[in-house]
Amino acid sequence: MLEEAGKEIDKALTIGARTQEWRDRLEDDYELFRLESFAIPKEEGVWENFTCNLARVLGDYVVDNLSDARRRLWIPIDNEGKKKRADLSDTERLAIGLILMADSIMSGIPECVDVQSALVWDAAIRGMSISRVFLY
To answer: What phi, psi does 32 have (nearest 5°)?
Structure first.
């Protein structure tokens, strides 16, 4: 439940402060992927600087492999009966089928990217992927 606006803003600011180092690290990694010039901080001494394309090459390799990977959707099963397990298995197959159907519909749009490729890029390059996908 949401509380008063002031309390919610305070919570958001607290979370932002606690995750700042993590978000800075994500940005540093993304700069390496974009091949931005890398410089060693002066307080660490005098060093020769160079920018290597290894982060870009490995990032593209991971995205390429995961984009074509077979989808797996997992719904945890505790102590369900045989009938309930079959229903959950059908639900997993339905969700995968719906994603495939959405991708096939979107493939007719020239500038569109399929769902899995978009999620893979965010997860591999930006460091995380949180999504809510509505299929209709």
So the answer is: -65, -40
Put simply, whether the predicted model's pTM sits higher than 0.70 gets the answer no
Cβ count near 67 (within 10 Å): 16
Structural contact between residues 96 and 71, judged by C-beta atoms closer than 8 angstroms: yes
Cβ neighbours, 10 Å, residue 98: 14
Q: Which of 59, 60, 133 is nearest to 103 (CA)?
A: 133
Hey, is 77 helix, strand or coil? coil
Tell me which residue of 98, 35, 92, 103 sits closest to 67, measured CA to CA. 103
pLDDT, tens digit, 9 for 90 and up, residues 65-100: 888 877 766 666 666 676 777 777 788 888 888 877
Q: Specify whether the CB–CB gap between 64 and 48 falls below 8 A.
A: no
